[in-house]
Every structure is written in C-alpha cells, then in structure tokens.
Amino acid sequence: MSKPFDPAAPFYAWSEDLSGMARGTLLRSEPLAESELIRGAARGWRVLYVSIGCAGTEIAVSGLVFLPNGEPPQEGWAVVSYAVGTTGITSIAAPSLDPLATVLGYPAWTTIPSFLQAKYAVVLSDQEGRGTAGPHPYLHGPTLAANQIDAVRAGRELTSELSAIWVAMGASEGGQSTLFTAAIATATAPELDYRGAVAECPPTEWSTLVADMTDMARILLPLVLHAASYHDPSVEVEAHLNSDGLALWNAWCTSRLAEPGAVLDTFMPMLGKPLFRLAPGDSTHAEAAARIFANIDMSGLEAPRGGFDRPILLTEGAVDEYCVPGTVGRLAEELSAAGCEVEYHCYEANHMDLPYLSLADTLPFVRRVTGRAPLRSLRQGGKAADLPAEARGAPVSPVTSVSVASVSKAGSAI
C-alpha cells in the first residue's frame, strides 16, 4: 500500500470527528469559477461531504455538482452520478481539483456535457483519497460505490434543484464503481429513486485481464497490485517490481495520469519492457506476471454478479487496449442468466473512444429509465455526435447491439 498523501488544498482538509454523522451530509461547498465549468453546465460547485471509507468508518470525500441551463422541472433535475476512469491514487489526482483536465488527451468527463445539455444535473465523487488525504483505494468497489451514492445525497443538500431520481454511470474504473453502486443503490439510499446504471468498459474477469494484458495496459500494473493489497495485505507492490516498475510506481505515487502529469511521460519509454522482477525460471514479463498473479486472490476486485434490481447498460470496445474484449459481453450474459435486466452493446472502439461512440445508446437508455421522452437518433452521418476533436471522424460501428442471450461464451459476438 502506498504512503499517505496530504489533502490537495485547504478546501479538502477536514479534521473534525465524523463518527455517526449521516452519509451524504454536506460539510462545505464553494462555487466554481466560470472558467472551471465544463461544457453544458450553467453552474457548478466543489463539495466536501460525508461518506464511508475503505476502513468502514465515516470520512470526508470531495466532488463536483453541475446544473444544466434553464429552469428545473417542478420535481427538480434528474441526476447522473458519474464515476470517472483512472486518474491516479494521489490527492492531486482529484477531478474536482481541475474539472477541465484531460486524461490521455480526452476529457475526464467523457460524454457528460451531452447529459447536461439533455437537462440532467450531474454529480461526481472524487472518491476516497483523491482531493482529500490519500491514497485512493483503487478499484475498491464497496468504497467507490458508497462515495458515488453519497454524492447524490450531498448534491441534494446543496441545492433543491436536484430530483430524487438518479442513475449511476461511469467508465473504466468508474464503470467498475458503477456496477458496485448498482448492486446496493436501492437498499443503501431508499430515500432516493434509483433508476438504473450505465457501466462502460468496466474491468471484469480478472483472470483474463492479468493474463492478456497489452503492452499499453501495463501502465496500470502497479495500481492493480495496489488495489489487490486492500483485499490481501500480504501483497507488497514494491516487492514485485523491477527498476522500471518501481519508477512507474513512484510516478503514480507522486503525480497523476491527467496532463500535465508524470505518469505517462515515465511510462512511454518503458512501453514493451518488463516491469516485474524476473525470478529463477522466468524468462519473460508474461511468465513473471503469471507467477505473481497465480499467488494473488483477485476476487475482491471482481464486479458483483447479483443484487441488481434496476436495468443495467453494459458497453465495451472490440479493440479495447486496457480491458480485454469479450469480458464485458460474458459478464452481460452471466447477469442476464441470473435474472438481471441487462442491455449490452459492443462497438468497434478502443478504450478511450468508447464513451463517445456509445452515446447514441447510453443517452436514450438514461432517458428511458428516468421517464424522459425518446430522443431522435444521435447518429449523424455514421459519426458520433459528441466525439472530442481528437477522436472525431471515427465511425459509430456497433459490432453487436443485441440481447445478451446471443453473446457466446467465447465472446464470438465481438
């Protein structure tokens, strides 16, 4: 487990005892400057609120609240509680610290501006250890879910313009957070009206993910070990890494993935090189990885396989370089067999493009479960309507957009 990190700024520091305080209680807020507002937002706030940390006790967690333009309906704006993908584990990796930050050249918020333009309010949790004192418990599903749910409560305490109707949404690490959220949302917050979830490219089927990791996905190796250490304290991140791996781990512990940040700059010269220490009998990084992960129980990182009482939309990319294609399709099939209401789509997309190419399905899904009128198709001449400048021109090409019953065990629908 990494060393502790101080809060990123005075706003994020909280020293008073929070024991017994109601989850979602708003501790403080500050309005965002106009220059900090994301596209589609009329107003926004940085918030600090009470939630539950990975130790099971009340902690302060930070986040953001955005409102769309216009007058809210009588019942208030329906809410999207969004969980971002990997930004880092340090306090300076908090999305709320820099709302306009980009990750690998893409906005951390992905398609959320489109939901604001569609007249949804949006809340985002930085989640434990980002912004506030860290480290962030990477991929710790129960904690991420608690933080994602309590962000809705805090937003409703901040402003009466938020409805009790809400959906959970996220991509990558945020997709995993969203699945954990969806499994407990109704029971955890019965005073709210949870309607469903959108989980995009969530990491699942960890035996496959660690066995089939691409060269680019190795940037996450120190974080995966860090995540496993929360479930198995015997896992020591540094013990498994060679000098390059240790340099990358140090970058994760001192910087962030968003630009400007040292993580990507540190990793790129290592692309394709081993990051694990080779033990006697190991001749390649892959052999070392197989040996190491064979002795680590990854089940604590696995997405729930039940408890979903509302519709779920799952998406993945057929050329995803971080989450192995086919794993989400098999998850969808498994959940459907367990009686969950699941919609699944796969696109000819990589990891970062996926949320933009799936917008033609995710926004109508959210409108449907929140009781909003159907939307005319977002597909415009075969292009995604909300693709960022660096990704425009990629065709919307769903490889499959069918019931999960047609997804084969081998993922051949991809």
With helices defined by DSSP (H or I, 4 residues minimum), what is the helix count?
Answer: 11
Total count of strands: 13
Q: Give the termini separation.
A: 37 Å
Q: Based on CA inertia axes, which overall geometry fits?
A: globular
Helix fraction by DSSP (H/I, runs of at least 4): 25-40%
Radius of gyration: 20 Å
Structural class: alpha/beta
Strand order of the largest sheet: 1-2-3-7-4-8-9-11-12-13
The SSE order reads: EEEEEEHEHEHEHHHEHHEHEHHE
Quick rundown:
The chain has 414 residues and is α/β, with parallel strands linked by helices. It is 26% helix and 19% strand.
List key phrases describing it.
disordered C terminus; 11 helices; three-stranded antiparallel β-sheet; 414 residues; 26% helix; globular; ten-stranded mixed β-sheet; alpha/beta; 13 strands
